[in-house]
Amino acid sequence: xxxxxxxxxxxxxxxxxxxxxxxxxxxxxxxxxxxxxxxxxxxxxxxxxxxxxxxxxxxxxxxxxxxxxxxxxxxxxxxxxxxxxxxxxxxxxxxxxxxxxxxxxxxxxxxxxxxxxxxxxxxxxxxxxxxxxxxxxxxxxxxxxxxxxxxxxxxxxxxxxxxxxxxxxxxxxxxxxxxxxxxxxxxxxxxxxxxxxxxxxxxxxxxxxxxxxxxxxxxxxxxxxxxxxxxxxxxxxxxxxxxxxxxxxxxxxxx
Length: 255
What we know:
CATH architecture of the domain at 1-135: Beta Barrel
Largest sheet: 4 strands, antiparallel
Mean pLDDT: 80
Strand order of the largest sheet: 3-4-5-6
Helix content: under 10%
Distance between the termini: 49 Å
CATH topology of the domain at 1-135: Lipocalin
CATH class of the domain at 1-135: Mainly Beta
Shape: globular
Order of helices and strands: EEEEEEEEEEEEEEEEEE
């Protein structure tokens, strides 16, 4: 682009289709300031409003900062908040935190014990800070999925170089409503592993899948599906050949 501003666009798609099979755009708005602004994730709230998390460049304290904005049902800006430190902090996902506020997850250099750590921020319904916690070690630690779980608290799935035996290792991290660590489990097959998503199962445990080059049971990239108990301990695991593919999501079947 030859403009100095990069704005992000929110488009609401009407779930109707024309005879040509093309989705119809209902409305869309641009948001952002004078720096680089990127929207990463959004959620729809019960009142029809929308919460969007992303990254704002050159608008806050450091090179990049976590941006949270709230829009009304007509996509008009209600408020925006910026969180971060003197280095780069990027917003990745947002969910509701149980008290009608929001829980944000991002990647932080400002509050890292090493290169990049997971940063979780809890805010009230107006975006005011309640608490913030960072999780990680001496290398890179990245969270991909954050959800509330039955039994209380939240579960984070991601990948870490800080605690893997050779390179990246998949992990699950469970925290309570105040961000304190309840348990941390590492699933390491000696090479590149990442837990991009998970599902809570009917028995209170969890299931997740990871793509790995580490075990290579079939001579290439494998997928490993894990079934875990409620404390993240492995009940069983099974590998499948998925050469040339990467698993990003796991869904629980209706039966």
